[in-house]
Each structure stands twice: as C-alpha cells, then as structure tokens.
Amino acid sequence: MSGVGENQLISIVPDELKFLFELEKQSYCDLKVANKTEDYVAFKVKTTSPKKYFVRPNTGVIQPWDSCIIRVTLQAQREYPPDMQCKDKFLLQSTIVPPHTDVDDLPQDTFTKDSGKTLTECKLKVSYISSSTAQKSSESGATNGDGNGSVTISTLQRLKEERDAAVKQTQQLQHELEMVKKRRNNSGNGLSLKLAALVGLIGLIIGFILKLTLASPT
Question: Which residue, of 69, 79, 131, 193, is most buried by count of CB atoms within 10 Å of its CB?
Fold first, then answer.
C-alpha cells in the first residue's frame, strides 16, 4: 500500500478531501487523478460512508500519461458533526489493464486482491470547513500574506459561489418558463379576439349585402 495521494501508477491532487460544510446544502471536491505510466490504468473509488457521498466517476480507465477529474459530492446534511470532525475516509485503488480497455469491459474481479495481480491503493482523509472558519482564515491569510491559505480559501469561496450561481440560474429558468407560458396564453387570447372581430366583420358585410338585395326592386 502506498502513501497518501500518490503511488507507483497514479498521482492524486489534492491529497485530502476538504468540504465547505453548511447544513442542508451540498458541497463538492474535485480530485485530479493522473496516470504516471505508459500503461492503461483502471481505478476505483471506495469510501467508508457511501450513503453520504456521491462519486462520479467512481470507476474508470486512464490512458497513458493522461488524467481525469473525479467529483466527490457531500450530500446535504441535517446536523453538524461533533466538533466539525470527520472520520470518513476514501480509498482509491488502481491497477494496470490491457491497452484500449474500456471501463465497461473491466472484469468484476479487476479490483480484487490476489497473488497474480498488482493492486495499488491510496488513502484520502476528509475534513470539513465551516463557512465562518473559511471567512476567518481568508481574512487571516490576507493580513499575513499567507499565499497557500489564500489559495485554499479562494477555492472554497469559488465552490460556494458556483453553488449559489447554480441555484440562481435554476430560479431564473423557472421565471422565464412562467413568462413563456403567460406569453402563450396572451397570444392565444389575442388570436381569439382577432378571430371574433373577423367573424363580426364578415357578418356585417353579409348583412349589408342582404339588406341591399331585399331593398332592390323585384
């Protein structure tokens, strides 16, 4: 078993999953997994709390010297963990597979440990960061000129802004949908009024013609 964040086959950035924790809100963390070999490498992500996290993709194949992004989403939680401490862990397994192997072609025993297969593993810890802590760290980093702290907090702020932007966009789309429905209804009403006016005009013309016909001498 290899050290955290790196093994003989792949490298993982970051080496720890950090989530901005807010009640009733989802949060996510992206992992960049890079293949450091000339072989095709298959990977699988496991966690000690599968009901709390949504991982996509949780299984895949990376081509030689290529990389992929794994998004780990923390589902909305109803209560804070004790002292904001998280004991959850992730395990990323990797192994060499034949060239041009597709993820759908992986055998079921691909990530099963046996004597005839080289299976490497990386463990990743999980930590939660409250919004208040993130704000304080951001202010401290700005005051002390801590570049590394600023990068971490700016990433958390970016994730929060992206989530809020997605919610706002959803609300805007719902509003636009309602406006389209109203326009359709108004358009339908306008068509009905035009049709009624046309029918009335035709009726007046027919009535006028009949009046002229009846008034003419026989």
Answer: 131
pTM: 0.61
156 closest CA partner among 134, 184, 177: 134
Q: Which residue has the higher pLDDT, 196 or 172?
A: 172
Helices and strands in the chain: count of H runs, count of E runs = 2, 9
| Cis before 57 (ω within 30) | yes
DSSP string across 74-127 = EPP-SSPPGGG----EEEEEEEEE-TT--GGG--TTTT---TTS--EEEEEEEE
H helix runs in 15-57, sequence order:
none
pLDDT digits (tens, 9 = 90+) for 158-179: 666 666 665 566 667 667 777 7
Question: How many whole angstroms separate alpha carbon 63 and alpha carbon 100?
Answer: 8
What's the maximum distance between 2 C-alpha atoms anywhere in the chain?
116
> Is residue 216 scored above 60 in pLDDT?
no
